[in-house]
Design brief:
The chain is an alpha/beta fold. The chain contains 15 helices and 17 strands. It has 3 domains: 148 residues, Response regulator (Rossmann fold, 3-Layer(aba) Sandwich); 125 residues, PAS domain (Beta-Lactamase, 2-Layer Sandwich), CATH 3.30.450; 162 residues, Reverse transcriptase/Diguanylate cyclase domain (Alpha-Beta Plaits, 2-Layer Sandwich), CATH 3.30.70. The longest helix is centred in the first third of the chain and has 21 residues. The relative contact order is 0.06.
Length: 441
């Protein structure tokens, strides 16, 4: 059982961390006011210190510097807790003696794993000082730790670029046996199989990451490649130097982290932020942006831009008779048909309910817009077969044109809405242009 001290100004975070520590069978102690840490350490040194970076009285990095300045505290293992991800901050913490870092919000399994590794590392380092085979045991333990990690890690000689060590995950990612990697240079490994973690062209456009590491102390790359299954893979690569007993940096650690799932989640969230979740068409926010871009292009190149508003005729009857599920299926099919009628430079969006809108760019004249509108009407008038139900729907369309009807987005949308109201008033299933509603003044 180890005694672990948690220093954090967030009482809820301390409570959560202390509960995890005690559940793992260790003794948890805590301190809310960071200015009293050094005084507390003079009384008793814990087996492990969890130190928050951002604290109001004295921040974690300042405390880390003061701890490293005290020879009695330098051997105490410290894990930094931070909500930040700046490479410069991570580099500074490692250089000041931190053994690891954990990002907020804390993930219980990650924290316990890193605590376990830090405690084992600390205990082993203390043991090897008193044993003759310290070097071999340290290497074996390091290998075990490296092989237990999910990240691909290798150690490279900074002068010769020879790979000195590689963990199990790294070898698996390379798809090469250990004897074809250890003792080989980066270039030699690349000749056997290309690998994002060890790419080094040496060109000005893509400088060698190892040279960059020696120049600035920490380097970072984000690489996107295609995996064996032809699916995109996203990798973050961190490299930082290791100093020997003389203080010279003679080795470089290269850590490769697979962030494909994280990137996919970011892309999904990005998609949801700007697209309608039912039809996957652009939503109002994205449509407004596209329309603004279209108007800017129209002004720049003296081109016509058409704004079209759609309202499905008697859509409420479908929801009332067949239910909202059938209505949702119909909206999805309507979206597909509308999207199939436009060019890549145009945009169809769902505004909400049964209302859709479109912006057409590079328009030659009003006749061009009318042809596209008739295409919309024709496509939607065809029968829909959804879950054995035969459905028929029509739409009313209102159109405004830039610059004839206005040059501002809201003005054009309002005028298209007036034209849409007229289309519904004269019998639905037709298209009306705002320019035809009122005589020119």
């Amino acid at each position: 059982m180890a005694r672990i001290l948690v220093v954090d100004d967030d009482s809820q975070a301390i409570e959560q961390t202390a509960r995890l520590i005690t559940t793992a069978g260790h003794e948890a102690d805590f301190l809310l006011e960071s200015q009293y840490l050094l005084s507390k350490l003079e009384v008793e040194i814990p087996d492990l210190l969890l130190l928050d970076v951002n604290m109001p009285e004295i921040d974690g990095v300042t405390l880390l510097k003061r701890i490293q300045a005290n020879p009695h505290l330098k051997k105490m293992p410290i894990i930094m807790i931070t909500g930040e991800s700046e490479e410069s901050l991570i580099q500074e913490c490692f250089n000041l003696g931190a053994v690891d870092f954990v990002n907020k919000p804390i993930r219980p399994l990650e924290l316990l794993s890193r605590i376990r590794i830090a405690l084992k590392t600390s205990a082993y380092i203390q043991a090897i000082h008193s044993q003759k085979n310290a070097l071999q045991r340290a290497k074996s333990f390091t290998d075990a730790i490296l092989d237990s990690m999910k990240d691909a890690i290798c150690v490279i000689d900074q002068q010769t670029h020879t790979i000195l060590e590689a963990n199990r995950v790294c070898l698996e990612h390379l798809g090469l046996p250990r004897h074809k990697v250890i003792g080989k240079t980066c270039v030699e490994v690349l000749l056997q199989k290309s690998h994002a973690c060890l790419q080094c062209t040496g060109s000005d456009q893509d400088p060698c990451i190892l040279q960059e590491t020696m120049a600035q102390g920490l380097a970072f790359r984000e690489v996107s490649t295609t995996g064996r299954d032809q699916k995109p893979q996203h990798t973050k690569i961190y490299t930082f130097p290791i100093r020997n007993e003389t203080g010279m940096a003679d080795r470089i650690i290269c850590l490769e982290r697979d962030v494909t799932k994280t990137k996919e989640l970011e892309n999904r969230l990005q998609h949801l932020a700007f697209h309608d979740p039912l039809t996957h068409l652009p939503n109002r926010q994205l449509f407004d942006d596209r329309l603004q871009q279209a108007l800017a292009q129209g002004r720049r190149h003296s081109q016509i831009v058409a704004v079209m508003l759609f309202d499905l005729d008697h859509f409420k009857q479908i929801n009332d008779t067949l239910g909202h599920h059938a209505g949702d299926l119909l909206l999805q099919e309507v979206a597909k048909r509308l999207n199939a009628c436009i060019r890549e430079s145009d945009t169809v969006a769902r505004m909400g309910g049964d209302e859709f809108t479109a912006v057409l760019t590079n328009v030659t004249d009003g006749a061009h817009v009318r042809r596209v509108a008739r295409k919309f009407l024709k496509e939607l008038s065809r029968h829909f077969i959804l879950e054995n139900h035969k459905m028929t729907i029509t739409t009313s369309i209102g159109v405004s044109l830039y610059p004839e009807d206005g040059d501002e987005m809201l003005d054009l949308l309002n005028k298209a809405d007036k034209a849409l109201y007229q289309a519904k008033s004269v019998g639905r299933n037709n298209v009306q242009f705002f320019s035809q509603l009122e005589p020119k003044r």
